[in-house]
UniProtKB/TrEMBL annotation:
Presence of the UniProt keyword Isomerase in the record: yes
Gene name as annotated: maiA
GO terms for MF: maleylacetoacetate isomerase activity
Annotated keywords: Isomerase
Annotated protein name in UniProt: Maleylacetoacetate isomerase
Length: 214
């Protein structure tokens, strides 16, 4: 099974896929697309990913993008360990938890949005940081409310890791990038602490990637 992953050290979406690949013990080659330098707009990469985003997973000649689609694809081609529950209600809840970050909070802080804020509205670095911190906190607050309403331990749905835990951990990374204290979200803090105690999560963190520099 030959797998390539087009990603970037800072990409939250690429982090999600790296975690799933590690949990499933699937070896892969990561190809860097420097989002901060605009390499996603190179003509060659546009041929790989029509949306010009990361990640893109290439498996046996197939190209798959959008992190949640990639995660579900990996779960179907290599179902151990299972990251989507068997129960239909639990699967729906897992997707709902995942989409809080994937569809709502994270897309508002990506490079193309930050660039648009500067180019169109003249936002300076302080304004952009405040914008990112706001949406990072909104995502964390939503997760905190959901975890309080449906408590489980040690992970979001109980004893088994799911895609939801990967996505909640990704929201914690956005907080890390913007130096947010998450003590106000104790359930999120406890859950993500347990996640990052696992090598698959810890080693996939952006701060552990070759491109990261303090």
């Amino acid at each position: 099974m030959a797998i390539q992953l087009y990603g970037f050290w800072r990409s939250n979406a690429a982090f999600r896929v790296r975690v799933a690949l590690a949990l499933k013990q699937l070896p892969f080659e990561e190809i860097e697309i420097d989002l901060l330098a605009g390499r996603q707009f190179d003509a060659g990469y546009a041929e790989v990913n029509a949306e010009r985003v990361v990640p893109t997973l290439v498996h046996d000649g197939r190209r798959i993008f959008q992190s949640l689609a990639i995660l579900e694809y990996l779960d179907e081609i290599h179902p151990s360990p299972r990251l989507m529950p068997d129960n239909v209600e639990d699967r729906a809840y897992t997707r709902a938890l995942s989409l809080v970050s994937v569809a709502d909070a994270h897309p508002l802080v990506v490079p193309r949005v930050r660039k648009h804020l500067t180019d169109t509205f003249g936002a300076d670095a302080n304004a952009i940081d405040a914008w990112c911190r706001h949406w990072a906190e909104e995502g964390l607050a939503t997760y905190e409310r959901m975890l309080v309403q449906r408590p489980a331990t040690p992970f979001a749905l109980g004893t088994a890791l799911t895609l939801a835990d990967i996505c909640i951990a990704g929201q914690k990374i956005i907080a890390d990038l913007h130096k947010l204290d998450i003590d106000a979200f104790p359930n999120v803090a406890a859950l993500t602490k347990r996640c990052f105690e696992l090598p698959a999560f810890a080693q996939a963190h952006p701060f552990q990637q070759p491109g990261y520099s303090r």
